[in-house]
Task: structure prediction
Amino acid sequence: MFKRILIANRGECAIRIIRACRELDIKAVAIYSEADANALHVKKADFAVMIGPDPVKSYLNIHRIVTIAVETGCDAVHPGFGFLSENDEFARRVTEAGMTYIGPSPDAIRDMGSKTKARESMIAAGVPVIPGSEGELSSIDEALVLANDMGYPVMLKAAAGGGGRGIRRCDNDAELRENYDITKREATAAFGDDALFMEKCIVEPHHIEFQILADSHGNVVHLFERDCSIQRRNQKLIEIAPSNFLTPELRAEMGAVAVKAAKAVNYVNAGTVEFLVDKDHNFWFMEMNTRLQVEHTITETITDVDIVAQQIAIAEGKPLPFTQEELSFHGFAIEFRINAEDPKNGFLPTPGRITRYNSPGGPGIRVDGCVYAGYEIPPHYDSMCAKLTVSGPDWESTVRRSKRALAEYDIRGVRTTLPFYSAIAGSDVFMQGEFDTGFMDKHPELLNYKQKKTREDIAAAVAVAIAAHCGL
Ligand code: ADP
Ligand code: ADP
Ligand code: MG
Result:
């Protein structure tokens, strides 16, 4: 039905959507900033239009992107994830310009985009939410009273938050006082909105999220869960489907609540309902992401559903091709986010030139990447350069296969999270298969892996040797 889709994104995310378009015989129009002239999504698209010199603002320029979509004859726009994907104004402008927005309605984006609004809607719908403030906090004094009422520890969170930013745990009054202004400043810098709210801190929780698909005919299903408990600084690193932590009964119960949450906001298209689950299997709604999720690949792998193709079909007005009863999953899938970051150095981004790039292959391996040998990773964007999705019939074989695939993966020139993931995949604690969000803090020994030297390390070592030789 759609003939041409503009993809308002870059990198690996844009390439994933281009691939779906190819398989559906739809032309893909890419956009790119000057800094992205050599990016792979530009080469892979059917058409590519330069949107501007600013590396980041270009991808956020609603007017220019909508104009390009109209001028290139697109009938739909896919926002991907990040950038404008949770911007209700963008969704509205795309529709007003006579095109279809591949995602939920602007109202659903707005209602779920603010975490405080989402909490209100979920409470009204009878969905359990994490105990916390009613709406936004108006002052530090209100925060102190509430924290003492609920009992520490508490979480201070940005209402407009995302990507793990603007979240701070506070264990006592002094920490709450200190973090209140810091979190407000962080929220302003990251989201242009300093509104904060408070939640009870769930101690050692599991992050479990349910993938939702909803069509425009009122059908809503879930595609089971993903366990995203392995995180650094509240951001996901490794995701697993299904979760080893859920019983079939709890899976069915949480899945039904996720569907109820989506129905409560008349949700249409793909979305994710995120929950925290404590060790006693109590669960609470945390937030809903009204877009495609980075880790959708593991759900695709265990359910054989192409989520991006479904997003397009739903936007075309087609009914879902399956009922909840017809859906099932098989085996396990693990996604490793391969980031250009140095885990030993606080996960600091390591942009630079990739000198060698060999990705793994063989049974059960899927790679969604956007880099190649000779590519210069620009410093302006997210540090994720590939996603490795490994699948197998059971947990143990999937972990063994992950170890093998990670060892095969060879990226040189910049440090990445690969050797760290090899250490994790090779550890007994990972093989045990159950983790909470404290996993990284509990296992600092996993950071003691050996790393390959980069060109800079070798150059520095040579300089030291020469200096010593010359008696400098
Ligand atoms: P999830 O999708 O699981 O919620 P994130 O919160 O990390 O995971 O997803 C949104 C993040 O995706 C943003 O914070 C941003 O850093 C990242 N992102 C945005 N655009 C892109 C892109 N084009 N390629 C890769 N990552 C991106
Ligand atoms: P984002 O929008 O940045 O994804 P979330 O609200 O989804 O933010 O939270 C991200 C992560 O922060 C969670 O996966 C969890 O590890 C931690 N977190 C958030 N809220 C709480 C809480 N109330 N108690 C414990 N951990 C929390
Ligand atoms: Mg989240």
